[in-house]
Write a structure and sequence with these properties.
By secondary structure, the protein is mostly helical. The protein folds into two domains: 25-114 and 140-528, no CATH class; 547-672, Rossmann fold. Helices cover 63% and strands 6% of the residues. The chain is built from 29 helices and eleven strands. The protein has helices at residues 3-40, 45-52, 57-80, 86-104, 120-130, 132-143, 157-161, 163-173, 198-206, 214-240, 244-256, 261-272, 287-290, 300-305, 308-327, 333-349, 351-372, 375-382, 386-398, 421-442, 450-465, 474-501, 504-528, 548-560, 571-574, 581-586, 602-616, 620-629, 639-644, and strands spanning 146-147, 153-156, 181-182, 185-189, 409-411, 466-468, 543-546, 567-568, 634-637, 658-663, 668-672. The strands form four sheets. Strands 8-9-11-10 form a four-stranded mixed beta sheet. A hairpin with a 2-residue loop joins strand 3 (181-182) and strand 4 (185-189). The longest helix has 38 residues, at 3-40. The model has no long low-confidence stretch (mean pLDDT 93).
């Protein structure tokens, strides 16, 4: 089979697999949303072609990623200008696409970076690697929000920490407040990087019924983002080592076999004679923390499911690194500016990640400039990238995305980083990092492409020397994933170097890494889609259920109450299972909540304590006074509140203060008079 035939077969298979995954996850409405997602990528294509040319896959990959950022920016402009509507969004999209085409300044078939020739073999390799996306992302998304025999909705616990929270965030963005409000603290703007979620929010808020489903949009957006993410990893590695098979192998290895935790768990269960069913109750990609108290590092498969906003930031950052890999500091001014736009997009999607990629890009360009003997003009030209990156930083500050985050950073070798640091590092990342380090040590040629090495080194330093004082794991998650996206270029170089020594050695290395690393991903993928496990985890059940009665009440709130209404449940007794019930499923704000996905600040706890008093008191007037002082419009009660505050339930029947607004077999909603 020729490379061209293989590429065509892989393209057809990928198309079928992606369509099947989207249909399984989101139905026909999901396919319609996928068309909109694809259209959102178009504005960046002329800029991608200006970098790599339209005959090179890099032009399409870079253009699509930049296009997503530009479309998101266009949506925000409409919201900030107080003219959010489907027509306004379409007009803004057309304007930004026309502006990008005008600014590209080159014919589409040419590119300013001049990378190595892209062949059918490279296309086939990329498409075959992309098949991992529907294979890994598709089955879990098909189970998110699935129904059991009684019609109840089911969500895997870790999807409630991310996907369900993203539902609340996207629903809040769909209200088009500027700046967006915090759905867990309605009197405050939200301090979170929400750029990625603007597209699904705009579609859900303005599109007709088949598309007006936030969770449907988020599922399809995540699948599309995963395709772009893997493409960007491939492109960045290929521009450093332009060899199709080694790069494809390296990318696949980092996705499916980055962690030895699954193999360790299997060995431990075997040695102890425990039943294999205990695997269902493991957070298998976090055993370095669970069992050894060390740092947690999530594999890239978890980017597909739970953190697509970070995936988009990584992908945009990798697009910029692909430019410096391909052209170094000799890139023309236009290419530097476009790389700066990609870095700006990374900053907008995640300021921390974008900042790291901007730092690595700048150092890599500077190293190349000093090597050239013509440093001054090259450095001046590369400094052009500072302009869009600085604009993105200013925008994040101006929209209050990052307010308060700087004060949470801690520096030093602290906490979990000190516990078995070498062992837990190898346990979490060994199958991918060991061959990457081998590539670094064995092949001096790779040092001429400084970006992968710099990203690896900087990320390892961040992993061990930086943390948030409110969330010890967050920096480790991001740093660990940046290590993984840096690894394929170095792994590919190791495979090339080892193959030059002896042809069988690369195969031995890859098979060994797969045997060690694949069990983690297989177990993790199974557990991510297992919504039939109702066992208790550490502090929560592995599957969270929304009953039909609860769903009816939440739908009534969405349909009947004003979009800006404040609907209060009791956060303390709900803890980590249904902590986002009202913001995510009723899509209404609360006066007080305890969000596990946002920076913990005292005001959450202060106001939640007042809400607790509102539910606990037996005095209707006292409860009413608290509700009015917190601007609560509706009080929500189901079995959780009744179980926690049974003595205080009768007061809500006092019609002088609370009016029954909705009631079914499980749920009561009272309007605050």
């Amino acid at each position: 089979m020729t490379a061209r035939t293989l590429a065509r077969a892989a393209a057809a298979l990928l198309a079928v697999a992606v369509v099947a995954s989207v249909l399984a996850a989101a139905g026909v409405g999901g396919l319609l949303y996928f068309v909109i997602f694809a259209a959102a990528l178009i504005p960046g294509l002329p800029l991608g072609f200006a970098l790599f040319g339209s005959r090179h896959a890099g032009g399409w990959i870079a253009g699509a990623l930049i296009g997503y950022f530009l479309t998101s920016l266009a949506i925000w402009v409409c919201i900030a200008a107080r003219v959010p509507s489907a027509l306004a969004f379409v007009v803004a999209w057309v304007v930004v696409a026309a502006a990008a085409w005008g600014a590209s300044g080159v014919r589409p078939r040419e590119g300013g970076v001049r990378p190595p020739l892209w062949t059918s073999r490279d296309t086939a390799a990329l498409l075959l690697v992309l098949l991992l996306v529907p294979a890994i992302a598709g089955p879990p998304f098909a189970r998110v929000g699935s129904r059991d025999a009684d019609g109840n909705l089911r969500y895997r616990a870790y999807f409630t920490a991310d996907f369900v929270w993203h539902t609340a965030l996207t629903a809040e963005l769909a209200k088009f407040a500027s700046p967006p409000r915090n759905p867990y603290l309605a009197n405050r703007p939200i301090h979170y990087y929400w750029t990625y979620f603007l597209l699904p929010a705009a579609v859900a808020a303005t599109a007709p019924a088949p598309l007006a489903d936030v969770q449907q949009a988020l599922k399809v957006n995540a699948i599309g983002t995963a395709l772009l993410f893997v493409s960007a990893i491939f492109l960045a590695a290929w521009t450093a080592v332009p060899r199709a098979a080694p790069v494809a192998t390296a990318v696949a290895l980092t996705i499916v076999a980055s962690s030895a935790e699954g193999l360790y768990a299997l060995a431990r269960i075997w040695n102890r004679g425990a039943p294999w069913a205990v695997l269902r109750d493991l957070n298998v990609d976090a055993l370095s923390s669970w069992w050894f108290g060390g740092l947690r590092v999530d594999g890239l498969q978890r980017c597909f499911w739970w953190v697509p906003q970070h995936s988009m930031a990584y992908a945009l950052g990798l697009t910029a690194l692909a430019v410096v890999n391909a052209a170094g500091s000799a890139a023309p001014a236009g290419a530097v500016a476009i790389a700066g736009v990609a870095l700006a997009g990374a900053v907008a999607c995640n300021p921390f990640v974008g900042g790291v990629f901007a730092l690595v890009w700048g150092i890599a360009a500077a190293i190349d400039a000093f090597r050239s003997g013509d440093a001054a003009p090259r450095l001046i030209r590369c400094a052009i990238a500072i302009v869009p990156v600085g604009g993105a930083v200013a925008w994040c500050i101006g929209t209050q995305m990052v307010e308060g985050a700087g004060g949470t950073l801690q520096f030093g070798w602290l906490g979990a980083a000190r516990r078995a640091p070498v062992f837990t590092f190898l346990l979490s990342l060994g199958p991918a990092v060991v061959p990457a380090i081998a590539g670094l040590l064995m092949a001096s040629a790779v040092t001429r492409k400084a970006a992968p090495v710099l990203l690896l080194v900087v990320s390892i330093a961040l992993l061990y020397l930086v943390r948030l004082n409110v969330d010890e794991s967050w920096v480790g998650f991001r740093a660990g994933q940046m290590i993984l996206v840096a690894a394929p270029a170095l792994i590919a170089r190791a495979l090339v170097a080892l193959g030059a020594l002896r042809r069988a050695v690369p195969a031995i290395v890859v098979v060994t890494a797969l045997l060690v690393g694949t069990p983690t991903t297989v177990i993790d993928e199974y557990n991510a889609r297992d919504v039939n496990n109702f066992n208790m985890g550490v502090t929560f059940h592995w599957t969270v259920r929304i009953t039909r009665a609860e769903e009816e009440a939440l739908a009534w709130l969405r349909r009947t109450t004003p979009a800006t209404a404040i609907v209060q449940m009791e956060p303390n007794v709900r803890e980590r299972e249904s902590w986002s019930l009202i913001p995510s499923f009723a899509q209404r704000r609360m006066a007080a909540g305890l969000p596990i996905s946002l920076l913990d600040v005292p005001e959450y706890h202060e106001k939640t304590e007042r809400v607790r008093s509102m539910y606990a008191t037996t005095n209707a007037q006292e409860a009413w006074n608290i509700a009015r002082s917190l601007h609560i419009d509706y009080v929500y009660i189901d079995s959780v509140e009744r179980g926690g505050y049974s003595a205080g339930m009768a007061k809500f029947e006092d019609r002088q203060y609370f009016a029954p607004a909705f009631r079914n077999a499980e749920v009561s909603v009272y309007r605050v008079e």
